[in-house]
Structure formats: structure tokens, C-alpha cells
């Protein structure tokens, strides 16, 4: 009896939130089928939670570390300790973790620009990098690009089956090759995301040809999805954004570079100034959020992963191509759904927006976002503006009209958001309600 009344109450609550009865029943059925998958995710979160606590304990994080400095920021105990904690978590010699690194693109640009000199070449052996990096590298003309500074770029695409083109990579490595840049996540592409293990194979192959080459991994969206990180498989730099996974939803800004002493030192001299490096850079009042967010990051990432798997299972059942598919292993928190029409992408984003705790009443629209080569629609009602560890969706308005969905600080919110997308697609006539009830 109790079970029945609870279900009724939950269904009523969803009904008040605009979810119709057939959508509710369908989504509950999918949810109930995923308990084994969710259990596996919880196991990974448990290991990663302990990893983070251990790093904090081993580096003696104290109450004093949560305070900040102003001005030059000399002897900033909290900042310096946080960087040791990141180095411990990512198993690297050192790390640079700063609010002065404004976003993921900035962290990646910093890592690349500080570790190359004129005449060097950067090689991407995993195809085209993330859109915003095209301007950093100079694939698309931009002021201040690496190309302007005489750093060239070459690229080897993945093979059609998603494997590395080892022959092509071997041919592309030359005496100028200084950095190999490896993007873990698919970003705005439909290629598979790379597991840390596969990244390790690639690094081993490349180092076998040229041991001194620097291997950098764009780790955006990948942190804490697995129990190992790129530093565990030989990456010289692991780079990411704090308004994605490792910020745990609490970091309001920031990026990190975890890597070898030399790579991190180069980055620090570029971020601040030659001669100053890591010694300056006041943390202001931000450190508590950085520590607190990192502490929550393993379970927040797990919530986002559950949402992605839930979405894959729902949209896979409706017959839309989903990447990764419903049963695949996961190496990042992004879920792509290919709608094939702009309307599908737009309705989906409207649903995510309508589920948000902030700005739920606004309607997202496509716009020409800086750094992207087509209009992009973004849905997010986030506590931290633009944070994509919070429930969010975005998609470039160009064929094959794929929406990329990610985040969810809690699994319950991620679930509700996906349910709202289904409802939105039905309400907009993009999806047929009978497709839902007949399943
Ligand atoms: C988000 C992302 C970036 C850029 O990060 P921003 O914080 O948006 O500048 C780079 N690479 C990948 C794979 C990303 O997902």
C-alpha cells in the first residue's frame, strides 16, 4: 500500500511540473531497467571519492587553506596546497589551478602556447580538436594564434572505424613535433570518446617514436568518469575546466593544468610573467569553493553520468541515433542525440531550460556564439553562468542536427530534465506521443 501511495505522490509531483502520465510511466520503466548500470557508476564514484579525500589528507588541507590572499598573493598556503591536491588526484608532479585561468579554452591555450616555441609543431592524432581550439591553433585565422607565432599544426584523423591511424601518426611525427594534443571527449563531434586506457596506448606509441614529445590531454568532461586519469597512463599534461567536472558545480571560474614540473612551470611563467610564475596570483576568496567543489566532484560526475545513460536509453528507444548508445561504456559525461532536424535540437533544449532551477521561464534561441563557426543553441539555467557540469544542452545548428547534453548536479535533476525534453518534443509535435506509449 505504501509503495502505491508513494508512486501516486511522485506522479502527482511530476504532473505539477508539466510531465504527462504517459511520459512519466515510460521514463519510470526506463529508470527501473538501469539499476545495474547505476550501481557500477556508484562503485567508481566511491573509489574517486576516497581518492580525493586521500589527496586532501595527504597534503594536510587545513582550515587556513580555505582562506585566500589579496594583492600579489605571495605565500598563498591555500592556493599552493590546492595545487598539490590536484597533483595528487591526477598523479602528476605538479599542477597549476587558478581562478586567473578563465575557462577550459584558456587552460588549453596556455598549456600549448607556453610549451611551444617558434618553429615547433603541434600534432593532433585524434582528428579535429574542439571548435574553440581552432582559433587558438590558427586552423581558423585569429589574432594571437599559435600560427601567428610560427607554431605549425598537423592533424591525423581517426580511421572510419574509430581506431587510431598508427601509420599516419608515425608519418606525421617529425623533428619539429613538440606537443601531441589528445582530446579525450568527443566534444561537438560524433566520434567515440577515448577511454584513458586507449589514450595510454596512443601515448606509448608516440613516445616510442619520439620519447621527448610532450603529450597533452584535453581532459574536459572526462574527470572522475573512470578511476584512472591521463596522468596514470603517461600524459605530460592533463588540462581542463573547473566549471566542468572537477569544480563539482561550486567553482565559479577556473582551469587546471596537471603535469610534469617542467610543463607546469612553463605554463605558470606564461600565465603570470617570466620570473614570477607560480609565486604570484592571489586566490581572493575563491579557495573554499575550489576545495569544496573538488570534494563533491566524484558524486556530481556520477549524477551527470546517470543522466546521460538515462537519456541514451530513452532516445535510443525512440529510434534516434544516440552516441554513446544505451549500453556502451562511458568515458565522458556527454550524451549526443542526433535529431536530424533543427526543430528536434531546439525542442530538446527548451525542455532542459524548462527544468532548470534558475531562468526556467526563458526560451533558448540559436545565436552566433564567439568561437563557433555556426549558430549554436544553448540551454542552461545554472547557478554558475555557462557551467556545463550543471544540467545543460547545446547544439550547433548545422547538419546532422545533433544535440549534446551534459551535466546534472544531482541525478534527480538530470532525470527531470530529460523527462522535460521528452515532454517538450511531444508538445512541439516533433515526437509522437504514441511512440512513447506503445513502447
Ligand atoms: C568545454 C571544452 C573545451 C573548452 O572549455 P571552455 O571552458 O568552454 O572554454 C575544450 N575541449 C573540450 C573537449 C571541451 O569539452
Question: Layout of SSEs?
Answer:
Elements: H1 2-16, H2 21-32, H3 35-58, H4 77-89, E1 94-98, H5 104-114, E2 121-124, H6 131-137, E3 152-155, H7 166-172, E4 177-183, H8 196-209, E5 214-218, E6 237-241, E7 255-259, H9 261-271, H10 287-317, E8 322-323, E9 335-338, H11 342-354, E10 376-380, E11 392-396, E12 402-406, H12 411-427, H13 433-437
Parallel strand pairs: 2-3, 2-4, 4-5, 5-6
Antiparallel strand pairs: 1-7, 6-7, 8-9, 9-12, 10-11, 11-12
Helix pairs in contact: 3-4, 3-10, 5-9, 10-12, 11-12
Bound molecules: pyridoxal-5'-phosphate.
Task: Estimate the strand proportion.
Answer: 5-15%
The helix/strand series, from N terminus to C terminus, equals HHHHEHEHEHEHEEEHHEEHEEEHH
Q: What is the CATH topology assignment of the largest domain? A: Aspartate Aminotransferase, domain 2
CATH homologous superfamily assignment of the largest domain: Type I PLP-dependent aspartate aminotransferase-like (Major domain)
What is the C-alpha radius of gyration, as a whole number of Å? 22 Å
Ligands bound, unique: pyridoxal-5'-phosphate
Question: What does it look like?
Answer:
A seven-stranded mixed β-sheet has the order 1-7-6-5-4-2-3, with helices on both faces. The chain has a five-stranded antiparallel β-sheet with strand order 8-9-12-11-10, covered by helices on one side. The model has no long low-confidence stretch (mean pLDDT 95). By secondary structure, the chain is α/β, with parallel strands linked by helices. Helices cover 41% and strands 13% of the residues. It has 13 helices and twelve strands. It has two domains: 14-47 and 295-437, Methioning gamme-lyase, C-terminal domain (Aspartate Aminotransferase, domain 1); 71-284, 3-Layer(aba) Sandwich (Aspartate Aminotransferase, domain 2). It binds pyridoxal-5'-phosphate. Residues 103-105, 108, 130, 132, 183, 185, 187, 218, 220-221, 241 line the site of pyridoxal-5'-phosphate.
Amino acid at each position: 500500500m505504501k509503495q502505491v501511495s508513494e508512486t501516486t505522490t511522485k506522479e502527482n509531483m511530476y504532473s505539477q511540473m508539466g510531465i504527462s502520465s504517459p511520459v512519466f510511466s515510460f521514463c519510470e520503466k526506463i529508470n527501473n531497467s538501469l539499476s545495474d548500470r547505476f550501481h557500477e557508476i556508484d562503485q567508481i564514484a566511491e573509489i574517486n571519492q576516497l581518492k580525493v579525500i586521500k589527496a586532501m589528507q595527504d597534503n594536510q588541507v587545513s582550515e587556513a587553506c580555505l582562506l585566500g590572499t589579496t594583492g600579489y598573493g605571495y605565500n598563498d598556503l591555500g592556493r599552493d596546497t590546492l595545487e598539490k591536491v590536484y597533483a595528487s588526484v591526477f598523479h602528476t608532479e605538479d599542477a597549476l589551478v587558478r581562478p586567473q585561468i578563465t575557462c577550459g579554452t584558456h587552460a588549453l591555450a596556455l598549456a600549448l602556447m607556453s610549451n611551444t616555441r617558434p618553429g615547433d609543431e603541434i600534432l593532433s592524432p585524434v582528428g579535429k580538436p574542439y571548435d574553440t581550439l581552432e582559433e587558438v591553433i590558427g586552423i581558423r585565422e585569429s589574432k594571437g594564434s599559435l600560427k601567428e607565432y610560427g607554431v605549425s599544426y598537423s592533424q591525423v584523423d581517426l580511421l572510419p572505424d574509430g581506431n587510431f591511424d598508427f601509420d599516419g601518426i608515425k608519418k606525421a611525427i617529425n623533428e619539429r613535433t613538440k606537443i601531441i594534443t589528445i582530446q579525450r571527449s568527443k566534444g561537438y563531434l560524433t566520434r567515440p570518446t577515448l577511454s584513458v586506457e586507449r589514450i595510454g596506448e596512443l601515448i606509448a606509441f608516440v613516445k616510442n617514436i619520439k620519447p621527448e614529445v610532450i603529450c597533452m590531454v584535453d581532459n574536459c568532461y572526462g574527470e572522475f568518469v573512470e578511476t584512472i586519469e591521463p596522468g596514470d597512463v603517461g600524459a605530460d599534461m592533463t588540462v581542463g575546466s573547473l566549471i566542468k567536472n572537477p569544480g563539482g558545480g561550486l567553482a565559479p571560474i577556473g582551469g587546471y593544468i596537471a603535469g610534469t614540473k617542467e610543463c607546469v612551470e612553463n605554463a605558470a611563467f606564461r600565465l603570470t610573467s617570466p620570473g614570477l610564475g607560480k609565486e604570484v596570483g592571489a586566490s581572493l576568496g575563491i579557495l573554499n569553493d575550489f576545495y569544496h567543489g573538488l570534494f563533491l566532484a566524484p558524486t556530481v560526475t556520477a549524477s551527470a553520468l546517470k543522466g546521460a545513460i538515462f537519456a541514451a536509453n530513452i532516445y535510443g528507444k525512440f529510434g534516434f541515433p544516440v552516441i554513446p548508445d544505451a549500453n556502451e561504456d562511458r568515458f565522458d559525461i556527454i550524451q549526443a542525440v542526433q535529431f536530424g532536424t533543427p526543430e528536434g535540437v531546439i525542442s530538446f533544449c527548451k525542455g532542459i531550460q524548462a527544468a532548470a532551477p534558475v531562468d526556467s521561464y526563458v526560451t533558448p534561441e540559436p545565436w552566433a556564439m564567439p568561437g563557433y563557426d555556426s549558430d549554436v543553441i544553448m540551454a542552461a539555467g545554472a547557478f554558475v553562468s555557462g557551467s556545463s557540469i550543471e544540467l545543460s544542452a547545446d547544439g550547433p545548428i548545422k547538419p546532422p542536427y545533433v544535440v549534446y547534453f551534459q551535466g546534472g548536479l544531482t541525478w534527480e535533476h538530470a532525470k527531470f530534465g530529460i523527462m522535460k525534453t521528452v515532454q517538450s518534443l511531444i508538445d512541439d509535435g516533433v515526437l509522437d506521443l504514441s511512440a512513447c506509449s506503445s513502447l
